[in-house]
Description:
The protein is α+β, with helices and mostly antiparallel strands. It has one helix at residues 2-22, and strands at residues 67-73, 76-78, 81-84, 89-94, 100-103, 113-114, 119-123, 128-134, 141-146.
Amino acid sequence: MNLKKLGIVLLVLAMLIFAVGCAKKAPPAPAPEPVAVPEPAPAPEPAPVEPPKEVVKEEVKPVAPASGSVKYSDTGFDPAEVKVAVGATVTWENTAKVPLLISEKTKTIVSKRTVPGEKVETTFTKAGTFEYINAVKANHKGKVVVE
């Protein structure tokens, strides 16, 4: 009986080996394919920024007039100051009840006695400030600024 037992054991063992060898094996799972991850597009380069241009404010001087006019009354010169351009002519008109004698240190302004209603003119050929008075009433003063 020993032989019988041994034969059975061998038979069982052979069937086991056969069963394992014949068993349908599932094919191995395929390796996952790598997923292509798109690279992010590069950020666009910012446009060059120019610094703001400096605004230069030019000093705008008013243009001096080509002529000026001063009226003289019993209370003085009106206007007391007149601005004109080089080459301009200034006219003084005596509207007072008394004579007018314009007097100026440098004698640029014509010193001429005028009676009421009369006018006198002077043309200024160089820049400067020319102060004058009425020689009859010295407290009546005026100024011509030539630019």
